[in-house]
Design a protein that fits this description.
This protein is mainly beta and 361 residues long. It has 3 helices and 21 strands. The protein has 2 domains: 10-149, Copper type II, ascorbate-dependent monooxygenase, N-terminal domain (Jelly Rolls, Sandwich); 158-328, Jelly Rolls (Sandwich).
Length: 361
């Protein structure tokens, strides 16, 4: 396992020349952080392509599963990603762009303080084996500062459990979440994730008193799975509720599809990136409950309506021809061609609980 990361502003995290052993292989590699130095991630830049990697997740861990200090990578499909407290810091798929935090916001890692993140673990899901003799070096470049930030970044992961019958035009996997955090969170970007049957994913802020909804994000999981700006910045706290819906089409498929970690299975994941108070805020939350009858009735009729086709994004998600330009971006707002929803008040039109669980995307 590599030693502590050097004290520079840019940290390069790479898979160590991995050779996936089989299709749908999950491989992890770990990077030890300075136990005395608290740091803050302010930007994520991606080095990788969907040609090799189905997805990549960056987790912050208290410990790592591998027991050998000389192990540079391990199978984390059949074994755990982390030991002790675990939280997701970033997720990527389909040649998506990187993400830059708003001013005064950073994901807190390292040190002996509140972060509890002693290791960074990169997990890559390889849907198929590589060509003979080929190795993979997929990874991330992190912009990191030791300057304390006013706010800490966090992820709220909403999870649904799809069960999709064959030859069906519209199947929904709904999930509802009453927030439990007493310290407000400010959601500013969201990433949606499903596999091949996914057609559209939506998330709403729901008022249980008026039964009204407001759109947070509407995304196409077949486009680059980046963290896209939400329709506006949403401040939410205990008592607020979020409704999510993943919609699928199984037309042309003759067998049932269930939730699972392989490329042939399906998923319903919505990652909400937020910032919160650095002293009292929660840095990772996972939520997803069966919706009650009132929540079920609150979904707008157009929640199942896919976004208009975008051949550029659909092609880019597969072959990544724009990858070099997009993966060096410095802001979520610098590429309106990949933003699915126009923020309210903007003039430009849209062009088109800490745990020990293992995270698969």
């Amino acid at each position: 396992m590599p030693g502590p990361l050097p004290g520079t502003n840019t940290y390069q995290l790479r898979m160590p020349g991995v050779i996936p052993a089989k299709d749908d292989d999950y491989v992890c590699t770990a990077f030890k952080l300075d136990p005395e130095k608290e740091m803050y991630i302010t930007q994520f830049k991606v080095e990788g392509s969907a040609e090799k990697a189905h997805h990549m997740i960056l987790s912050g861990c208290a410990g790592v599963f591998t027991s050998s200090p000389n192990t540079t990578s391990w199978n984390c499909g059949s074994h755990a990603t982390c030991t002790g407290s675990t939280r997701i810091l970033y997720a990527w798929a389909k040649n998506a762009a990187g993400t830059k935090m708003p001013p005064e916001v950073g994901f807190r890692i390292g040190g002996a303080g509140k972060s509890r993140v002693k290791y960074l673990v990169v997990q890559v899901h390889y849907a198929t084996k590589l060509a003979p003799g080929e190795r993979d070096y997929t990874g991330l470049d992190l912009e990191i500062t030791s300057q304390p930030q006013k706010y800490i970044g966090g992820i709220l992961l909403m999870v649904g459990s799809p069960e999709i019958p064959p030859h069906t035009a519209v199947v929904n996997a709904d999930s509802c979440c009453p927030l439990d955090s007493t310290t407000p969170i400010n959601v500013f970007a969201t990433r949606v994730h499903a596999h091949a049957l996914g057609t559209v994913i939506t998330a709403y802020k729901y008022d249980p008193h008026t039964h009204e909804t407001e759109l947070i994000i509407k995304g196409n999981p077949q486009w680059p799975q980046a963290f896209y700006p939400t329709t506006r910045e949403f401040q939410m706290a205990k008592g607020d509720e979020i409704l999510t819906r993943c919609t699928y089409s199984s037309l042309g498929k003759s067998t049932y599809t269930y939730s699972g970690g392989s490329g042939a299975d399906e998923m319903c994941n919505i990652y909400m990136m937020y910032y919160t108070d650095a002293d009292n805020g929660t840095e990772f939350q996972q939520c997803g409950y069966v919706c009650n009858p009132e929540q079920n009735k609150a979904y707008p009729a157009d929640s199942i309506q896919p976004l208009p086709p975008n051949p550029v994004l659909e092609a880019y998600a597969i072959n990544g021809k724009m990858n070099h330009q997009l993966r060096t971006n410095s802001s979520l707002d610098e590429h309106p061609e990949i933003i699915t929803q126009q923020r309210k008040g903007e003039n430009q039109p849209a062009k088109t609980k800490d745990s020990t669980v293992q995270f698969h995307c």
